[in-house]
Each structure stands twice: as C-alpha cells, then as structure tokens.
Design goal:
The protein is an alpha/beta fold. It contains 9 helices and 10 strands. It has helices at residues 9-26, 41-52, 80-89, 111-124, 161-167, 186-190, 205-213, 250-254, 259-262, and strands at 2-6, 31-34, 62-65, 67-69, 101-102, 130-133, 155-158, 180-183, 195-199, 231-236. The protein has a 7-stranded parallel sheet, with helices on one face. The protein has a 3-stranded antiparallel sheet with strand order 4-8-7, covered by helices on one side. Strand 9, helix 7 (205-213) and strand 10 (231-236) form a beta-alpha-beta unit. It is globular, with a radius of gyration of 17 Å. 43% of the residues are buried. Bound molecules: 2-amino-2-deoxy-6-O-phosphono-alpha-D-glucopyranose. Residues 35-39, 66-67, 134-136, 142-143, 163, 167 line the site of 2-amino-2-deoxy-6-O-phosphono-alpha-D-glucopyranose.
C-alpha cells in the first residue's frame, strides 16, 4: 500500500487524474470503479479537461459506479446517475461509449435481481482493473457502513444516520435524503485489481487514521485497504493530521528512482 501525502485538494485531484489517465493509456479497455461525493469532483474536472484535449481515448473504457440511492429517480439532481452525467459523461461530447457506462439501478422493480445483475456485469466486463474510492467521515466506502460484512457483494443497504446527515447538504430538503442505497460490497471492491483512495480535509482525519492505523474491522469498512495488495491512498495534509506514521509527499515519492515500479504495490 502506498500512502502519499499531498498538500491540498487541488494536488490530490490533479495527481489522481494523472494516475487514472496513465492507467487508461496502459490499458485502453480498462474497467474502472468510480465514486461520487464531493471529494472526486476536482479529479473529474481534471479528467474532463484531459478528455476534451483528446489526450487519451476512453471509448473502450468501462465505468461502474460504486453505488446509487434507492428510490431516487435517475433524473433527480442528487441521483448518482445525474451526478455522473453532470460531472463527467455529458461534459465531453462523444468521448464515452454509452453501453460502457454503468450505474446501479436503485429504481429497479426487483432490487435483489438488479444487485445480482450489477455484480454479474462487473464480472462479465472482466472485473475492475482500478476502483477509485472516497471515504465517509464514519469510515464507510461506497455505502458500506460500519458493521457491514467485509466480504459483502452488491446489495441494498440502510444508510447510517451519520451518512444521511453528511449527505443532507446536497438536498434542498434534508428530510428527502434517501435512507437506502444499492452499493458494491466490500468484497466486490476488494476484487478490484487496484484501488485509489482519496481523502481531503480535517473532517476525514479520524476516518483516515482508523482505516490506515486501526485494526481491520467492520467498524471502519475502509480498513479493508490494509488487506489489498495494490492500493494508492492520496491524503492531503489535513486528512493526514491524525496519522502517526509519516508517509512520503508526492515530491519525495517521485524523486525515488524506483517509484514507478512500486506505485501500485
Ligand atoms: C458518499 C458516497 C461515498 C463517498 C462518501 C464521502 O455517501 N456514497 O462513495 O466516498 O460518501 O463523500 P464526500 O466525498 O462528499 O465526503
């Protein structure tokens, strides 16, 4: 696992985007797991610039969202369907292949079947090469809340009260924040061949410390990263403030002659 300290949100976003672009160039038919939330917005903005400039071709790449609210219409501004269109898919004309863009269907008549189909679709695509993740203030990844099974697959979950409160800022009426979501499980995420985690801001410091220095426990689902062989965790100074282990900055990391070979180890 490579934990890399970055100065701030902007450096985290730029660095993450450049790592993703490098991975797409290395494997044009890459299968990506993609997150939502406030944290990845800067990274998506950078990707949009890169795709607009034609620096990399993403038509063969597949995208699988980590999660989606249950019961929120796809057109609802806060649905993750709408989020992905707004921040990435509709931003670059003709860049993406629509059949390669996947978001869980939280409005399916048969949710159980939709969960199984989503899991099967990831498998059919060859499994995720790279899954990007944010981290909740309570240590959740995707919508795997504290107390979940660390081997879980795509399923419907009830959101923790903390998560509902955290996400209320995106809704005009906090009372309308959905209580359930369809999410990749921690087992689904662990099957990805590589992970990139992003954490920015003091509000994430406790969760980052628990994920990286605490025990691997369902109390902090993000702690699964400790068991994954290929993880890059980009943490800005504020989010790293609860860590006792000192990790290299990107500058330090980059000046290491072996950096390229061990980035995803
Ligand atoms: C949301 C998403 C997660 C995200 C997390 C943090 O509820 N389901 O995938 O990582 O919460 O969000 P933010 O980046 O806005 O802090």
């Amino acid at each position: 696992m490579r934990v890399i300290r970055v100065a701030d949100y902007q450096e985290m976003s730029d660095l993450c985007a450049s790592l993703v672009v490098a991975q797409i160039k290395a494997k044009p038919d890459i299968v990506l797991g993609v997150p939502t939330g406030g944290t990845p917005l800067g990274m998506y903005a950078r990707l949009v610039e890169t795709f607009r400039a034609g620096e990399v071709d993403v038509r063969r790449a597949s995208f699988f969202n980590l999660d989606e609210y249950v019961g929120l219409p796809h057109e609802h501004a806060q649905s993750y369907h709408a989020y992905m269109r707004r921040h990435l898919y509709d931003q670059v004309e003709d860049a993406f292949t629509p059949e390669n863009l996947h978001v869980p269907d939280g409005n399916a008549g048969d949710l159980q079947k939709a969960c199984e189909s989503y899991e099967a679709a990831i498998r059919a695509a060859g499994g995720m090469d790279l899954c990007m993740l944010g981290i909740g203030a309570n240590g959740h990844v995707a919508f795997n809340e504290p107390g979940c099974s660390l081997a879980s697959r795509v399923r419907v979950v009830r959101l923790a009260e903390r998560t509902v409160l955290d996400n209320a800022r995106f809704f005009a009426d906090p009372a309308t924040v959905p209580r359930h979501a369809m999410t990749m499980g921690t087992g689904t995420i662990r099957d990805a061949r590589a992970l990139i985690l992003l954490a920015s801001g003091e509000g994430k410091a406790a969760a980052v410390a628990a994920a990286l220095e605490g025990p691997v426990t369902s109390r902090c689902p993000a702690s699964i990263v400790q068991l994954h062989p290929r993880v890059v965790f980009l943490v800005d100074e504020a989010a790293a403030s609860g860590l006792t282990v000192r990790h290299p900055s990107w500058e330090e990391y980059r000046s290491d002659p072996h950096a390229e070979t061990f980035l995803f180890q």
